[in-house]
Amino acid sequence: MQIVKAFRFRVYPDAAQIARLARWNNALRFLWNLALEQRLMGYARPRDERVYPSAFDQMKELTELRAELPWLADVPRNVCSQLLVELDKAWQRCFKKLARAPRWKRKGRDTLSFCETHPKMWRVDDGHVRFPKLGTLRTVMHRPLEGKPKTCTLKRDGDQWFVSIVCELDLAEPAPRDGPVVAIDRGIANFGATSDGEMIANPRNLEGSLKQLARAQRNVSCKKKGSKNREKAKARVARIHRKVKRQRDHFLHVQSARLAKSHGVVVLERLNVAGMIRSHCARSIADAGWSRFAHMLRYKLRGLGGSLIEVPAAYSSQTCSACGCVDAKSRRSQAVFCCTSCGYHDHADLNAPKVLLGRANRSATMPVEGTGSSRPLRSGKRVGLRVPRRPLESSAL
Q1: What's the confidence (pLDDT) of residue 368?
Q2: What is the pLDDT of residue 387?
Q3: Per-state percent for the chain, helix, strand, coil, to nearest 5
Q4: N or C: the chain end with fewer CB closer than 10 Å?
């Protein structure tokens, strides 16, 4: 099978390179807003006169625009073209009702990345990455690249810069594993509970940094708008958020890797996490990272020959795992479950994964996701996006 793997490394641009990247960011923000305005003007026409410019149409006009604006021509051509492709994909997601319409890029709020899509325009040399028109960037190569390099992307994270190199790998299809089956019920009081009786504690990374974050945000509000002190205060807030994000990702990677290596099949409840965040407990659910945890489990299990099954989550906290009786009164409290029908008594968080495991066993005749002769249990068809394909320029204009 062919997979795509990304390698992310820390880079250390010098002062001149940072200044040039800042100019590139301003130029790309202008290009994004200009291309977005062109599309909005085309859509605002009467229905029978509407114009739907594609990424190809806007790329044709890019050459003339770069000739008129030298500061835009300073940005590599393929980086500008990729930005138009990303805008086109954003509109496709909007038309398919997968996301909202793309918004304007605002200075100080939106940071753009610089993606070079032509593999011959950049290279990696002994701890350095050479990017077109930028020169050599000192890089911390903490692991070797694998496969065939395809794209190179520079992105700023607060006051740090990173390079993401995407490679294509051809791997043998892993043999299906016959390891143990486990069901996991995700929660807030506890991050998760397994059908094996294990309780996974919730680290609550954001909650542990709320006081520090509130203090830093109050410090921002006290500074004069447009001043350098305000920029420094905003950078401190960004560093706190970055630390929380890295703590969360580390926890999710550790737990998902441990479960993927020790089990052949993992069962999760199918949740509309986005809808739950909009309705209630938004901060706690987002801090737990339920969707990201499921994504990590899926690709790690697939690489090891395992599979991930998603089953309906309706009334799993009110269903008795012993007799199957559904009664809201059985859930006595956050931690106590006592069936009103058969008297079965268990911890509420441990009863739910047993219910999920039973639902997966009853659906065992259905194909399982992740194996060679299977399909996912998730209802609905997969929606794909049309990606513009064109001959890439071999020179950075």
Answers
A1: 40
A2: 52
A3: 40, 20, 35
A4: N
Q: How far apart are CA 317 and CA 358, in angstroms?
A: 13
For 259: left if phi > 0, alpha if psi spans -120 to 50, otherwise beta; the answer is alpha
- 313 and 294 Cβ atoms separated by less than 8 Å: no
Instruction: Write down the pLDDT at residue 49.
Output: 84
Helix (H) or strand (E) holding 148, with range, is strand 148-157
CA–CA gap between residue 147 and residue 128 (Å, rounded): 18
Contact (Cβ atoms closer than 8 angstroms) between residue 116 and residue 132: yes
Q: Quick check: helix, strand or coil at residue 6?
A: strand
If you search the block for the tokens 């940094």, which residue do you land on? 209
Q: Give me the residues of the chain with pLDDT under 50, please.
A: 365-383, 391-397
- Between vectors from CA 287 to CA 185 and to CA 155, what angle results, nearest 5°? 125
This model's pTM is above 0.85: no
Residues 20-33: pLDDT tens digits?
999 999 999 999 99
Are 166 and 49 a contacting pair, CB within 8 Å?
Answer: no
What residue spans define the domains of the chain? 2-170, 181-362
**pLDDT value, residue 364:** 63
Distances (CA, A) of 88 to 108, 158, 248: 23, 27, 31
Encoding tokens for residue 42?
């085309």
Q: Look up tokens 């002190």; give the residue.
A: 229
Nearest to 274 by CA among 252, 290, 256: 290
Residue pair 36/112 in contact by the 8 Å Cβ criterion: no
pLDDT tens digits for range 76-107:
999 999 999 999 999 999 999 888 999 999 98
**Residues 6 or more apart whose Cβ sits within 8 Å of residue 242:** 157, 158
